[in-house]
Design brief:
Oligomer: single chain
Number of domains: 2
Strand order of the largest sheet: 4-5-3-2-6-7-1-8
Distance between the termini: 40 Å
Number of strands: 8
Helix content: 25-40%
Structural class: alpha+beta
Radius of gyration: 20 Å
Order of helices and strands: EEEHEEHEEHEHHHH
Largest sheet: 8 strands, antiparallel
Amino acid sequence: MVQYKYVEITVRHDDCWSNFTTPNYFDTLMNVEYASFNILKATRVAIVRGSQDDNRFMIKSALNNDKSIIDYEISHLISNNRYSFYMITMLQDADSTVIGRLRAKGILMLNASIKDGKEIYEIIVSKDTEPLITNSLKNDSRVEIINFISSNLKGETLFKMVSRNVMDMLLTEKEQLLMKKARELGYFNVPRKRNLEEVAKELGVSKTNISLSLRNILKKVSNLIYAF
């Protein structure tokens, strides 16, 4: 029986457009397919905080810095006073991408995203394929492996991965930090280990600030759940 592993890989890819994105940029891969002549077609949805004009210029500048990109299209989806969503479709030489190398090894891609200028991949691989992936990435001088986590495949791991991907898109960095800290302190335990005032003290903010932030997070999650 084939044994499968869950692997999360974080890399910094020199000369790749991802390396030229700014800290306010986050995206997730929505679709990838191969065209003729070993050309990879990828569609990503990006969320960028800040001015819409500045964001578009940043994305174009990053893409233009990558010589392996043959063509691309940036479509503005929606914006509010805090962030903008874009759909980015690109044609790229498959051999120049980490995605191309991973797919060549027969992996199942669960998630691929870019955050803080780093590429993050969550994949399912057979136990025998795992070392082949590691060697392939290490043999490329342009790719620096920052983090490599491997574990036996579990249903709980898959569920957490899907949930985290949604939360990365939905919550701001401060909101994610608040949720993580509140969980670590036992605020969500029954009974609670720490109350709201204690969580606020740990984070150096007021009790009112924490209360409003948690209500805003709950509103975002409920709107997502009951949107359809």
